[in-house]
Amino acid sequence: MNEMYIYSNRNEFKTKPYHRLDISFNFHKQKKKYLRTFTLGIINLYNQRNPNAFYFTEIENFGPNNTRYKRITLMQRSFFPFMPNVGWSIRF
Predict the structure, then answer these.
(1) Burial class (CB in 10 A: 0-12, 13-18, 19+), 53
(2) By the 8 A CB rule, do 91 and 34 touch?
(3) What count of other Cβ atoms lies within 10 Å of the Cβ of residue 4?
(4) Is 1 a residue whose pLDDT tops 70?
(5) Between 61 and 85, whose confidence is greater?
(6) Where exactly are the structural domains of the chain?
(7) CA distances from 51 to 23, 55, 66, 74, 75 (A)
(8) Which of 4, 41, 46, 65 has its CA 20 to 30 A from that of 87?
């Protein structure tokens, strides 16, 4: 049995559009010697599965005459579709 790799053409892989909506609110509290700021927010408010990482994978098939071939494909992985955000700062 012969083994061969089939690669796709250059720039053939198209990713999904990357878009997100972030929102945050700042609450300020002024003291005599310093300013406190508390931040509360959400990253990617409408939960879009944006690509964060790309990796290659092999898909194995058999062709005519029992020729085995592997197609190398670029895949995408998504992490953290929706993430809360909390912060606190002090300025002197």
Answers:
(1) exposed
(2) yes
(3) 9
(4) no
(5) 85
(6) 3-91
(7) 20, 11, 36, 12, 10
(8) 46
**DSSP for 9-38?**
PTT---PPP-----EEEEEEEE-SS-EEEE
pLDDT (tens digit, 9 = 90+) per residue, 3-50?
Answer: 666 666 787 777 778 899 999 999 999 999 999 999 999 999 999 888
The pairing of strands 35-43 and 68-77 is unpaired
Looking up tokens 């061969």, which residue turns up?
Answer: 4
- Of the chain, the end-to-end C-alpha distance in Å amounts to 73
pLDDT at 3: 63
